[in-house]
Amino acid sequence: MRAAREIERKYEAIEGLELRDPASLLGIETASGPDEQDLAAVYFDTADLRLISAGVTLRRREGGSDAGWHLKLPAGKDSREELRIPLERSPRRPPAELVALTRVYTRGAALAPVAELTTRRRRWVLADSTGRSLAELVDDHVSARTMGEQTTTVAWREVEVELGEHGQQKLLDRIERRLLKVGAQRAGAASKLGRLLAERLPERPPARFRSGRSAGEVVLAYLDAQASRLRRYDPLVRRDAPDAIHQMRVAARRMRSALQAFGRVIDRDQTRELTVELKWVAGELGGARDTEVMAERVAELLTHVPDDLKLGPIDAAVTRAFERRAAEARAVGLAALDSDRYLVLHERIDALLADPPLTARAGRKAKRELPKSIQRAYRRVESRIAEAQRQPSGEDRDRALHETRKAAKRLRYATEAVEPTLGKPATRLKKGLKSVQSLLGEHQDAAVLRPVLRELAGQAHLAGGNGFTYGLLYAAEAARAERSEHDLASAWKRMRKRKNTAWLTN
Hints:
Elements: E1 2-12, H1 22-26, E2 30-45, H2 50-53, E3 57-62, E4 68-74, E5 79-85, H3 96-101, H4 103-106, E6 112-127, E7 133-146, E8 153-163, H5 169-181, E9 185-186, H6 192-196, H7 215-238, H8 244-261, H9 272-303, H10 314-337, H11 340-354, H12 366-390, H13 395-422, H14 424-462, H15 468-495, H16 498-501
Antiparallel strand pairs: 1-5, 1-8, 1-9, 2-3, 2-6, 3-4, 4-5, 6-7, 7-8
Helix pairs in contact: 7-8, 7-12, 8-9, 8-13, 9-10, 9-11, 12-13, 13-14, 14-15
């Protein structure tokens, strides 16, 4: 499977646009081409078009330089991640590897052909004076027909501009200004398939939370954004992409924290089951994330251990141990993503966003109502820190500091949710929380890693080796926990300054 990131924009209303000299038209130094291609593609989707509704396309393409199966996944503004598999791997049916990556969108529904497109393409490579590729310009004449019980055939022309290896985002803006000046318009659909099937796409729920003026609108907008992130990272977790597990867990935790913190706005009793399920999926992915963090930390610690204090092949032993742990934890996480329970979780998220259980407070002005919820979350952190300080050193304090860390995360995520609306006061509080949360995170990471190091030392001893070096690492982690705990009091004092918290008591 090959992957590529494409950053492109599409334009229509270009019937009279001449592209005899695209370099001059678009203000680029040189342009090679046009290369002409004939392309034929069959697109697959569910009967109710769940993929294209989510901005995802799956197609089988013949012709051109990139024939094969293509899966395009959302990857941010103007961007999509394209995954390709050769046709010979699966001549007629969508490859299982690609189908698995669409599961969060299809929810297990069958895929079938929904459209067929043929394209006569002219392609130019736009380059600088040294010949470096800046962008590709394609002029497509498209003939398309829907497939199924009723068929529709349409034809149109569109222009696409895609960034090349050495192109910058600002180049797209510059080219766009030139195209708009000669009468082109940004395409109304993000893809050719979206244009063809526009009338068949299900209507989106009313954009009732877009203005951001009421408390309910602000909270729902945040939940909507995190739901999109949760789904976006699902295929990346399945592909074992860097940092994907962490980002997916963060999205789940943000949703859960928002539902807990803003229970005055979205009826808490009606979201309890959803928060339980969000905790579950974050927990199932937790082992893999914890293993990532521990492996990175141990590798870093070992770089500071002199060679004469590394007794036995400890580097190789640590690598093997964490690779085994990572494989086991990844299997647990993937099993969760492949479960029916996970699909039900997404159905519940859809139901929440389509028909949210808003309270009477949800209609109040965000700037007046939401600080009250942030204040409650803030007081929870105060209470947790006080409780931790009362505990004697050891496991009881470690547990209390872990509870403090969870409360601090809830406060941070809640503050993050209101930041676009409340502005600088929320930004200051979030920044003040950063060092507190960082220290709590350091303490918890050390608390989690120390038993693992003790276990690895025991395994080394039973295998006839020496656990001395593991003892050094254990001591380093104990010292790290002690330092972070010592620094926490002053960091909390700085965060509590009036300039950070005055807005919570107004």
